[in-house]
Amino acid sequence: MAQSDMSSPLLDPRELAEPLPLSMGDPVVCILGSGDFSRSLSTRLLCCGCRVVVGSRDPGRLSPGLFPGGVELKTQREALEALSEAGGSLVFMAVYPEHYSALLALRPLLSGKTLVDVSNASALKHEGPSNAQTLAQMFPSSSVVKGFNVVSAWTLLTGSYDSSRQVLVCGDCPSSKLSVLSLARRLGFGAVDVGGLSASRAVEEAPLLLFPSWRGPLLVTTLLFLFFYLYSVLRHVLLPYLDQAENNLHHLPMVTVNKALPAVALVTLALVYMPGLFASVLQLHRGTKYKRFPDWLDHWMCVRKQLGLLSFLCAALHAVYSVCLSIRRASGYMILNAAYRQVKAGVADSWVETQVWRSDLYLSSGILGLGVLCVLALTSLPSVGHALNWREFTFVQSGLGYTALALSVAHVLFFGWDFALHPEAYQYYLPPVFLLSVALPCCVLIGRFLLFLPCCALRLNKIRRGWESERNVRQKKRENGDEFGDV
Ligand code: NAP
Description:
The structure is a single chain. By secondary structure, this protein is of the alpha/beta class. The chain has helices spanning 36-47, 76-85, 107-110, 131-138, 153-157, 174-186, 200-205, 215-244, 255-286, 295-302, 304-325, 329-345, 353-379, 382-385, 390-416, 433-452, 454-464, 470-486, and strands at 3-5, 8-11, 28-32, 51-56, 72-75, 90-93, 114-117, 143-146, 166-171, 190-193. The strands form two sheets. Strands 5-4-3-6-7-8-9-10 form an eight-stranded mixed beta sheet, with helices on both faces. Strand 6, helix 3 (107-110) and strand 7 form a beta-alpha-beta unit. Helix 9 packs across helix 15 and helix 11 packs antiparallel against helix 13. NADP nicotinamide-adenine-dinucleotide phosphate (NAP) binds at residues 33-38, 56-57, 94-96, 99, 102, 118-120, 149, 152-153. Residues 33-38, 56-57, 94-96, 99, 102, 118-120, 149, 152-153 line the site of NADP nicotinamide-adenine-dinucleotide phosphate.
């Protein structure tokens, strides 16, 4: 079969020169159109033991070797007749939607067949019916199923090495949809039924979406970064320059970025756990879990994974920046200058025990925090996350998540030490960045601690097991009574 070697798992149509022996039960599939998608699909179908008939406007024009030898190349009409003779019903429409009207003459031959619309939307949110709905209107005696548009011609050729890819399928006829779903599974894809043809717009637009679930988290992270970066520039570069003509511009590419990154990592990590706290407080207040959360909270809960991964990214970058800070030319000069000043001052030993403890403690807690964040990031990979059961996943995401937050807060507090207690920490009346960044995570940790108190934890546990407060029970009874009254 098709793979040339293990490092290149691409199916090669030329290596499929000989037709594969077909048994009576093998499905027969017709593809209209002889372009890129048709070539890849026919190769994959052939590899999976299907008989493939390709219908082209001009099969004589196709150069030899373009399709594997096992594929039958015919005119559109002959291909559909061959499909009917073989008792097949699946027809892939591998042409662009603007050419659907050119196929209207084939209506009688396509009657009773399942037409698989593989087209993609040309733009997001365009008005009117989807391509699949237009096709269904053009061929009312055929059954239209939307599918396979989310896999590229390339993916179709990458064989079983890319079988984790999902194929979204929708259509109004259950039996037609079922045959497309089972064909997708036969080709090694994860087939997902996403409903009737009314879902086809979303399926068509799926390949055009650009990280939809990442937009909000990316915006929040960018805004936080800009805030902390500009705040540091103001406090450490601009104001010292205006006040004492001190030139700290060289801080901009490394030092200032490395002040903003950990602050963003910490605040973003706190934002991962805040919606959970809000949800708990709301349930405690309402005395039930059977009421919907407000939309903003629902959306926030849905992007916690993305926020967590962005927090991990910032923390990892902070670690790399911190390691590289010491190899900067500026650090070399500063150490030499400090050593010279020390020699001139006649100080032989500059060891300060508390500073040694401080630096070891903040480095150690930072490294541990980053390690735990690493584990969290790994479990967010679907292949790893799916291998965990519910309890393991909750332990990692909630238990280890709060551990990472606590370690990160400890890292910042050890870094700050008693600095926040000295007036010079508030130069130009502005608190240091680390103090600003640690405020929200501290609130989240305190909130979590309060929810652990038995008065909250026991009630919350009952609510999560379905218990409802008297007030809710009375309200429900009243509503039910009103309904019966209406009847
Ligand atoms: P393509 O390479 O341009 O092939 C389109 C085929 O349509 C042509 O080979 C031609 O076949 C036929 N055709 C062209 N003009 C026609 C006309 N006026 N009337 C009737 N048939 C005409 O395009 P493609 O990349 O294969 O894409 C085909 C469909 O698959 C599109 O709807 C696309 O959105 C969808 N799709 C493609 C990919 C991909 O990776 N390429 C992925 C997902 C979905 P004949 O000359 O043999 O008739």
